[in-house]
Structure formats: structure tokens, C-alpha cells
Design brief:
Layout (H helix, E strand, L loop, with lengths): L2 H23 L5 H14 L4 H18 L2 H6 L11 H9 L3 H30 L3 H6 L1 H14 L4 H25 L10 H8 L1 H10 L2 H6 L22 H4 L2 H16 L5 H13 L5 H30 L6 H4 L18 H4 L2 H37 L2 H40 L4 H18 L2
Helix pairs in contact: 1-3, 1-19, 2-3, 2-20, 3-6, 3-16, 3-19, 5-6, 5-16, 6-14, 6-16, 6-19, 8-9, 8-21, 9-20, 9-21, 10-20, 10-21, 11-20, 14-16, 15-16
Length: 451
């Protein structure tokens, strides 16, 4: 491999690790909302695919290591996947062990990465012989995936009932655009609709703020005081095999392995299920919380890595919640990537291995060391100096720009409409996975509905 290309990959991985170490610590930064627009911009600007993949792998590893920090410090999840750990992290904080909580979760992420990378690469190559068979049934598989994910949500009936109306909305807008000549007939506006779903909760909240009665009724809070303990700062070089106990190492490795194989399932659902399963019999609250958070963090990292690599290497189609969410731009970003021409078709097996290894190793070396050694200082700086709203505003601006590039001014209104509906569905408990699966299967659903 070209030395210059390796240097570019390492540089991209460094940038990904640094950027998403900061973003990961900021409270409430959803993985899909902060990863997808940046990755999409890199794809559309013509960056080498192998460099983009190194950046993306580094970003997700760094994001998953850091999004547990605000959980441990303030009980606020850094992202959706960190939400299941809040209750257990608060137990440790109550016992004055917030610093231990951060180390346990970060170390769990390291173990999850170390397990998921080789397992994902082996499993992906094992599935390659079956790729054509799976691709032939891709559209009904997306529809079946929407149903399965709907059945895994809390509001099952509501999620199932929303599939058809949401598909009608998506295809209705596409036919409107074709009818008025905004885009050529048969051209599916996809990227901006996808991003509209991604930032749906943000769009819904912004529209609600325009309602005077709603705005007045919102609760007001004083400044929240967050205290940091200066005791028990970690000395020496961080080592996950020393920070985690043998039992924690065992359960974290096992949950990470299971998470790698269950890449097609909802990461949040499987995280809650396995995390509680492996800690439920432990009586001591501190030991139980430590076991749960380390296992959960390892599993989330594994689910993200396997959910990206296995569909990307084996299929070239986003048949997993992770692939259809944060990693979507690696599969479908017209005109650069399409389902028929993306990283799956461009990169070789060795390219995938190199990009994955460089991205994950760089992120682990930088982010894990920084979080275990300096998490409190970094967290204090970000809480004080980097407003959450500013980051959301940046991503919202990118979405509007890409919506205009997709289908002009009218599409900004279309994206707002999809965002309002998607945000409402999300608030009602219908997760992103269901909505993204419907987005992919909408043409197939409507064509079969009308015969």
C-alpha cells in the first residue's frame, strides 16, 4: 500500500478521534445526527474511500468511548447508546465512584473493539458467498426489518401502524417532485430525506418553540452545578486488563462477541437485554453496576463496528440499524456512492482490514488514554465552553444545505415535513431503525400496495 495513502489514513483517523472525543462528551449528541452529515460531506467532496473508512471507524470508536463520560459525571447520556447505562452509573456516583465508572466504561469499549474487529472481518468474509442471494431479497428484507424492529420497541402496535403512512409520505413527496419536474422521474431523493429523519427531534423541538403557549409552559431551570472529585486520579499508563476484574473482562468479552453476531438487531435493545442479564444475579450494588456498565459499553462498541463492517464488506447494502443509520453515507451517497457502486465494490479485503485497524488503533491510543487520564478536565472544558446547541445548529445547517442540493428550495420544505413526522414518531417511542427501514423499503411497499 502507498505510503502517502497510509499517512492520509492515519491523519484522517487522528482527526476523527479528536473531533469525536469532544463531540462524544457533549451531552445529548445523537450518534446518527453527528456522524452522518460529516461522513456524507467527506464522501461528496471526493476523499479517498479508504481514508473515509479509517476516519469513520476512528470516529465511532472515539464516540463510543467518550459518550459515557457525561453519564458518569452528570447522569446525562452523551448519545442514545449511552442511555441504558445511566441508572448503573448513578449508583456508582452515589457511592463516590464516578471516576471508577468512567474507567470501567472506557475499558469496556476497548474490549468491545478488540473483540469486534477480528470477529466482524471473519464473519463478513464468511457471508460473501451468500451475498447475491441476500441482495435478491433486499427490498422485502428491509420491510421485514422494519416489522422486526417495530416489534422490539415499547409501543409495538403504534410502530407497526406507522409503517404504511410513513412510506406513503416518503413516496408521495418523491412523486410530487417528479410531477413538477424538480428532479427527473425515477430519481429517488434519498439523502435529504434520510437526514430529515436523523434530525427529526431537533426540527420538532424548533417548531414547538414557535408556539407561544408551548414555549411559556416549558420548565425553567437554574444553572446546573456539576462537581468534580479531584481524588483518585489515575496514575500510570491506562490498561483495561487491570482496570476491569476477571469477571468483568469475561462478561464484557462475551457480550461483545454476541453483539458482533447480532449486528442486524437493535443495538439499544440488545444492550439493555444482555447488560441486565449478566448483572441481574449480583447482589452488591457497586459490583452489579460495574459489571453492567462495562458489559454494556463493550457491547455497544461491538454492535457499532460489526453493524458497519459486516454489511459493508459482505453485501454493499445497509442491512443493519448501524449501517442504515450513522454509516449510511458509506453505502449510498449519490452521485459518489450508490447501492450498485460503493465501498463494497471499490475496496479490497486488505483495504478494509487496513482502514479498520488504523482507525480503531489510533482512536484507542488517543481517546482511551485521554479519557482515563484527563476525563474530568476535558469534561469540565466542554461543559463550560462548547454549547450543545451550537453543535446541533451546525449539523442542522448542513442538513438544509444538502436538502437544497438534492432537490432545490421545495425540498427544504419536504425535509421539514419529514422531520416533523419523524420527530413525532421518535417522541412516541418509534426508534430510528424502524423509520430508516421504511425509508429504504418505501418504493417496494407502495408498489405492492397498488398492485
Amino acid at each position: 500500500m502507498d505510503v502517502v495513502l497510509i499517512i492520509e489514513m492515519i491523519t484522517a483517523a487522528l482527526l476523527g478521534a479528536v473531533i469525536y472525543t469532544v463531540i462524544g462528551i457533549a451531552p445529548g449528541t445523537d450518534e446518527t445526527a453527528v456522524l452522518t452529515p460529516v461522513t456524507l460531506v467527506l464522501v461528496l467532496t471526493g476523499v479517498e474511500p479508504i481514508v473515509i473508512l479509517a476516519f469513520f471507524i476512528s470516529s465511532i470508536v472515539a464516540k463510543k468511548i467518550t459518550d459515557s463520560v457525561p453519564v458518569a459525571v452528570a447522569g446525562i447520556p452523551g448519545g442514545v447508546m449511552a442511555t441504558p447505562m445511566v441508572e448503573h452509573a448513578m449508583v456508582l456516583k452515589k457511592h463516590g465512584m464516578a471516576d471508577i465508572s468512567i474507567r470501567k466504561m472506557a475499558s469496556g469499549s476497548v474490549i468491545g473493539t478488540m473483540v469486534a474487529v477480528p470477529v466482524s472481518l471473519v464473519l463478513a468474509n464468511a457471508l460473501i458467498p451468500f451475498a447475491d442471494l441476500i441482495k435478491d431479497y433486499a427490498n422485502p428484507l428491509f420491510f421485514i426489518g422494519a416489522i422486526l424492529l417495530a416489534l422490539m420497541t415499547k409501543n409495538k402496535l403504534l410502530a407497526l401502524a406507522s409503517i404504511l403512512p410513513f412510506a406513503l409520505l416518503i413516496q408521495g413527496l418523491r412523486h410530487l417532485y417528479w410531477g413538477i419536474g424538480v428532479v427527473p422521474e425515477g430519481t429517488n431523493v434519498f439523502i435529504s430525506f434520510f437526514l430529515g429523519i436523523t434530525i427529526g427531534p431537533v426540527i420538532l423541538t424548533l417548531f414547538e418553540l414557535l408556539n407561544k403557549d408551548k414555549r411559556i409552559s416549558l420548565p425553567r431551570y437554574r444553572k446546573k452545578n456539576i462537581t468534580f472529585s479531584k481524588k483518585n486520579r489515575y496514575k500510570g499508563i491506562p490498561n483495561p486488563f487491570k482496570i476491569l476484574t476477571k469477571k468483568e473482562l469475561g462478561t464484557t468479552s462475551l457480550t461483545s462477541l454476541i453483539g458482533s453476531f447480532t449486528f442486524i438487531m437493535s443495538p439499544v435493545g440488545i444492550t439493555i437485554f444482555l447488560g441486565e442479564l449478566f448483572s441481574s444475579r449480583i447482589k452488591d450494588p457497586v459490583k452489579k453496576a460495574s459489571r453492567a456498565i462495562s458489559s454494556m459499553d463493550g457491547l455497544t462498541n461491538a454492535a457499532y463496528i460489526s453493524g458497519t463492517l459486516i454489511p459493508l464488506i459482505a453485501l454493499g447494502l445497509p442491512l443493519s440499524p448501524m449501517a442504515i443509520g450513522p454509516a449510511h453515507a458509506l453505502f449510498n451517497a449519490p452521485p459518489v456512492f450508490t447501492p450498485e457502486h460503493n465501498m463494497h465494490h471499490i475496496l479490497s479485503t486488505s483495504d478494509f482490514v487496513w482502514a479498520t485497524l488504523i482507525g480503531s488503533v489510533v482512536a484507542l491510543l488517543i481517546t482511551y488514554f485521554a479519557i482515563v487520564k484527563y476525563s474530568q478536565q476535558i469534561c469540565a472544558f466542554i461543559f463550560k465552553r462548547i454549547p450543545h446547541e451550537a453543535m446541533l445548529g451546525l449539523f442542522f445547517g448542513l442538513v438544509l444545505l444538502l436538502a437544497f442540493m438534492d432537490a432545490g428550495w421545495i425540498n427544504i420544505g419536504g425535509v421539514m415535513l419529514i422531520g416533523l413526522v419523524a420527530g413525532t414518531l421518535h417522541r412516541w417511542g418509534i426508534n430510528y431503525g424502524v423509520q430508516f427501514m421504511v425509508l429504504y423499503s418505501a418504493p417496494w411497499i407502495i408498489s405492492h400496495l397498488v398492485g
